[in-house]
Amino acid sequence: RCHGTCRMLCHLRGLDQGGTAPGMRQPGEVRGTLTRAKRGWVWNQMFVLEEFSGPDPILVGRLHTDLDVGNKNLKYVLAGEGAGTIFAINERTGDIHAMKRLDREEKAEYTLTAQVINRDTNEPLEPPSEFIIKVQDINDNAPEFTNGPYHATVPEMSQVGTPVTKVTATDADDPVYGNSAKLVYSILEGQPYFSIDPNTAVIKIALQGMDREMREEYLVVIQAKDMGGHMGGLSGTTTVTITLTDVNDNPPKFSKSLYEFTIPEDLGIGQVGGKVKANDRDMGENAKSTYNVIGGDDKDVFEITTDSQTQEGILRLKKPLDFENKKSYTLRVEATNVNFDPQFSGSGPFKDTATVKVAVEDSDEPPVFTQPSYLVEVHENTGVNAVIEQVAAHDPDITGSLVRYFIDRHTDLERQFNINVDDGKITLAKPLDREMDMWHNITVTAMEISRAIVAIKVLDINDNAPEFAMEYETFLCENGKPGQVIQTVSAVDKDDPKNGHFFIYSLVPEMSNNPNFTIKDNKDNSINVLAKHDTFRRQKQEMYYLPIVVSDNGSPPMSSTNTLTIRVCGCSKEGIVQSCNVEAYVLPIGLSMGALIAILACIILLLVIVVLFVTLRRHKNEPLIIKDDEDVRENIIRYDDEGGGEEDTEAFDIATLQNPDGINGFLPRKDIKPDLQFMPRQGQHSGPNGVDVDEFINVRLHEADNDPTAPPYDSIQIYGYEGRGSVASSLSSLETASSDSDQNFDYLREWGPHFRRLGELYSVGESDREP
């Protein structure tokens, strides 16, 4: 094994005795002969120190081949990782040098390939062989705590050896080669409270009885050193903050053994009489305590509760105090931890007790009424200054002061009542009126600010007359029948008799024999008003006034006269009121003003529709504007049969022109839609062998002129195709100056063979008319 650090040479070996490189055959060698070839290259790993920074390149090793026996044509070639940049080879001697400073932490080894070639021809003389150059580590990296600084917690009072936390350091040096990466841990600060395992780096409790209440937080400095902790090694440090967590290791403790309170005897039930506090050195849930009254005289008079926010004991009153009966109380209270930790049970009971002395203070108590409220009933006709009630109160104090009485005028703004300040007699200051105020609630005040509510009920007397329950609006139909009920009347009375109301109705004496109306009792404190005849007319009298007397059965009886206003109106047959004004009498029976207005609006709308219809009808029948007098008024019938020429004598039938749509001689118009059907007279038409075209056209012209459904112009259809090879321009008669005189159609024969048949037809027609 050759090491570059020892400057030893690595030689190339393996050529056989004849000087042949392995894998190469000599000329003339038999192909089938197998001979054992010795290995040409024998390699071991080469090593180079990292971080070497000498002035000259460092020699890593030397390559040598057995072919190199003074032959100057040999050339050493190096290839692979870092060849030519990091590593260089002397092509003549095979020496390999490191040209740069190497760092094992960046790259630990390099793989290269060596080969011997002919210097002149660059042909390989030996096959390439691979070798490795490893970078040898030196201790150039200090340990590092990548996760620091650390924070950890541990319960207080933990046993020695209790694990707290673990720290970890890393070293970038080679952990395999030497001790550069072998770490040893130690504590620089934090003793004697904590210790650390030098190999595992686990921090543990080193001191018994570490109390959070004495010290809560510790700062520990940990060191990691490589080279196994020996001198010359590199080191790194980190800090660990260790906090002791609380446990319930302290009982509650009252700040003093005796508490004294002075409470006034008029303290309200549930009110706070005092506060006690038991302090606990623990925190959070471990410091919570509960308070109880465990002894004392009359312990049911007081109770103690716990304030969850302040952890105080609140002393409250459960029963009223009376200085005259008991002037002081002695209580025994206890504070106990809510949460108990059994491991500290040997430390003693986690509770504490204290004595509370309560002194009752005499108060100037207000007078006390013999009853909290009074109910007084008095008649509304009770005289002024009459005594209606007497209230009484006494002073509960030992002094027994005299009591004076007053009425709180905020409850008696009208000053309806008075009270005797010495004996509490309540008298009437003003007359009572039950209809105005049925109840009076006044407050009587004693000198000692003691109050009592006096409720005074006013009793009713019959001092109000009955009257109509409402203002009635009564209507009477002109066509009503005698005895018809026109109104039901009821009454009300502000009084409130014990046996209820009973009303009596009657007409005023001067109208007891009223010729128009009468009344009928319904036996339910109401009456019906009836009409005596059916001759009521608005033109005669529009309004009637009927006075009615209503009386009650009180003592003394009270009565009032109420007038019922009756209006005469026009009604429908069903008795529904339609109009009550005299002016409306002139209107048609059964129609109101609104109905008449609606009818008039409908009539106006119908008139507008009729006018529009007539206008549109007239506009439709008006002739279209004709620009000149030479307007063509002729029907042109289009047919698609062009004929077969002069040789075809059977293809065209003049009967098609004579009657294209039937044998009745009527041709319907296609340009308009007639409003009524016009049936023309049955015309004379010839058979297929005797056709009179002139007569046919005259008949059609006469029918068109007398057709009421046709507009005053003829329908013109334009022919866009005249045929091929025509020597004439157009056959349309629109450009022909036609008249009633005979025409000569011989010129048609001169147009060519295509028009010869047409000329013969017209010639035949003329010959038929000549006789």
TrEMBL record:
GO biological process, any: cell morphogenesis
PROSITE patterns in UniProt: CADHERIN_1, CADHERIN_2
Compartments it resides in: Cell junction, Adherens junction; Cell membrane
UniProt cross-references to SMART domains, sorted A to Z: CA
Keywords in alphabetical order: Calcium, Cell adhesion, Cell junction, Cell membrane, Glycoprotein, Membrane, Metal-binding, Repeat, Signal, Transmembrane, Transmembrane helix
Membrane topology annotation: Single-pass type I membrane protein
UniProt GO MF annotations: beta-catenin binding; cadherin binding; calcium ion binding
Protein name: Cadherin 8
Species of origin: Scleropages formosus
Taxon lineage: Eukaryota, Metazoa, Chordata, Craniata, Vertebrata
